[in-house]
Write a structure and sequence with these properties.
The complex is a heterodimer. By secondary structure, chain A is mainly β. In chain A, 0% of the residues lie in helices and 50% in strands. Chain A is globular and about 35 Å long. Chain B is mostly beta strands. Chain B is 0% helix and 53% strand. Chain B starts with a strand and ends with a strand. Classes of the chains: A mainly beta, B mainly beta. Chains A and B meet through strand 4, strand 5, strand 9 and strand 10 of A and strand 6, strand 10 and strand 11 of B.
């Protein structure tokens, strides 16, 4: 079975630009979460979506937005990119939204902002 | 608010030696606790999780962890290190609310020498 997939794998943008990252969950999983992992740090929670509705939001500015589609895939958008947005963006999927559900992580998208 | 502290950004062991990676958590409610491993340029893989059942949890690849409420700890151990265990390890906490937000520690890099 295919795991969580993310695209693109790498991305280079300049300050002020906008970026869209994509995630396809494991088949049958209805919850998708997004995390930002800055070099040398642990992942930090950005959003969780379940059944196409936002169910949780981390401490990130409004420049960050996301959505979930009817097929449960998801997009993360970041506007007005800053140098500090350079990070590995991880997507995780789980069957349900509760904490006891195991989250399966994708390989991530490496975003570099110049 | 919940938080995780991982003592030691780097831990070095010899092949065959005991592995001990430390994790202390803070949570206002009974937590769910997780250990993840991250190999270079890959996403996170779940090693094991504690969800209020047995306090000694066995995971994959010979790892185990013990939940100690009195010490607010969830240390990860393996009796005998293997070269393939060299990776970064993250401890994470989630409260048992409706959704599955994970709060991660900063990670511990495990180095295994021959």
């Amino acid at each position: 079975d295919a795991g969580v997939t993310q695209s693109p794998t790498h991305l280079i943008k300049t300050r002020g630009q906008q970026v869209t990252l994509r995630c396809s969950p494991i088949s049958g999983h209805k919850s998708v979460s997004w995390y930002q992992q800055v070099l040398g740090q642990g992942p930090q929670f950005i959003f969780q979506y379940y059944e196409k509705e936002e169910r949780g939001r981390g401490n990130f500015p409004d420049r960050f937005s996301a959505r979930q589609f009817p097929n449960y895939s998801s997009e993360l958008n970041v506007n007005a990119l800053l140098l500090g947005d350079s990070a590995l963006y991880l997507c995780a999927s789980s069957f349900g939204q509760g904490a006891h559900n195991e989250q399966f992580f994708g390989p991530g998208t490496r975003l570099t902002v110049l | 608010a919940q938080s995780v502290t991982q003592l030691g950004s780097h831990v070095s062991v010899s092949e065959g030696a005991l592995v001990l990676l430390r994790c202390n958590y803070s949570s206002s409610v009974p937590p769910y606790l997780f250990w993840y491993v991250q190999y270079p340029n890959q996403g996170l893989q779940l090693l094991l999780k504690y969800t209020s059942a047995a306090t000694l949890v066995k995971g994959i690849n010979g790892f185990e962890a013990e939940f100690k409420k009195s010490e607010t700890s969830f240390h990860l151990t393996k009796p005998s290190a293997h070269m393939s265990d060299a990776a970064e390890y993250f401890c994470a906490v989630s409260d048992n609310r409706g959704y599955s937000t994970l709060t991660f520690g900063k990670g511990t890099m495990l180095l295994v020498s021959p």
